[in-house]
């Protein structure tokens, strides 16, 4: 056994030395392929060992940059090519939305498919650049690299409205057990832990002779086991039981996107959703019927639709529907909102009693930054409705309806940690309405569901998620998916509403715990003295 371990140690040490010595296009290609491998750790592949390979190679390339004539430029280039591969394989699905209206926008798909990864790769390039000046070895450099990489992930989630997609923590979000510790330190804190463990194999692969090249693998395996054991222990803890007084009926109508955005299909789409919404419930049980994003545009203005809801839905039901809302100004100017409408019974019949306007809009998809420029080159039609597209709402909201309090989110908003509800106004459950039909049968809808799972774990709140073409799901307060409807399948989920938990640590303290962890890793990285072996 000792001889085998020695040969393995020598093999990995030689492989690392060869990677460090790569130059030119071979170095950039290797970095790109390592990034692609990292993306395969996310949904739907979940190849977790590839994330360790990917980030360990990232660390080795930072080491190798120090020996180059221009170390900072070399590190940035390696980090950028790594990020370009990572995000090209991770967010390629964004380009699929341009084929929904292919006659107008298909020509833009290649630019979107490469442009977004090229921009996001600037963050990983910057992370590599920052690490180069620190002359650290062994575990010190791994702690430092992990802290810098995690800090840059946090910046990516906030700069220019933010895009925290494919955070390292997402690799564990395919199962509730692997992601439970997000309840303590959130998605960014879990990312820091995952990055450190994934980079750990590189700890014993520094330049110079090191007889302990496998020590990092041992730490990675032990740390991963502890994460899963902690998750299993948390899932086994006692939790409140639901009283069965409220049920949810989550509708997935499976409407093709070309029909979804065509006003000629409005009535048929409405009827398709109604088909999955009807049906009696036991006396004394409240029912929440949930429709996906844009399920009923201009519902407030459609009296015939409100009449059909009043006639066909159970008396003790509340409809929570994705909608489009219009406001008319005093001079006829219109403002459009991507909204959620809450429809309840009133003495005069069903009416919209509350609404929520999406506040975190998707740049280009829902509004156009630099509108004047895009309009001047004929691309104003990229946004829906008029002029600049949707207007932003005022922020998160908690809504009381039929005896419970919920906080709604529309699509993209569910990817942002610690933004699920207004500070100090904690609800009993979360509602997410989305329409991932734009992105086809790709990794996008699956990754989107994983991020929604993390929001339930972080807040300790159950979630009802209605997606037009999937994946719709009912998620409990510990992130367990109780029921789901697969992609491109029409149907409904009907089940009791799960109870909430007491607020977890992350729900109470937010990203401050992550910041303290970050300082700890940075302090350790800067304080640990170089080992004589390195």
Explain how this protein is built:
With 534 residues, the chain is an alpha/beta fold. The protein folds into 2 domains: 253 residues, no CATH class; 219 residues, 4-Layer Sandwich (Nitrilase/N-carbamoyl-D-aminoacid amidohydrolase), CATH 3.60.110.10. It contains 17 helices and 12 strands. The strands form 2 sheets. Strands 5-4-3-2-1-12 form a 6-stranded mixed beta sheet. Helix 15 links the parallel strand 8 and strand 9. Helix 3 runs antiparallel to helix 4, helix 9 packs across helix 15 and helix 9 packs parallel to helix 17. The two termini are 25 Å apart. The relative contact order is 0.12. The mean pLDDT is 90.
Q: Per DSSP, what share of the residues sits in E-state strands of 2 or more residues?
A: 15-25%
Task: List the helices and strands in order.
Answer: HHHHHHHHHHEHHEHEEEHEEEHEEEEHH
Taken from the alpha-carbon principal axes, the silhouette is: globular
Spans of at least 5 consecutive residues with low confidence: none
Distance between the termini: 25 Å
Q: Characterize the biggest β-sheet.
A: 6 strands, mixed
Radius of gyration: 25 Å
Instruction: Work out the count of structural domains.
Output: 2
Tell me roughly what share of residues is in helical segments: 40-55%
Class from secondary-structure proportions: alpha/beta
Say how many strands there are.
12
Mean of pLDDT: 90
Strand order of the largest sheet: 5-4-3-2-1-12
Total DSSP helices: 17
Features:
534 residues; 17 helices; 6-stranded mixed β-sheet; Nitrilase/N-carbamoyl-D-aminoacid amidohydrolase; 16% strand; single chain; alpha/beta; 2 domains
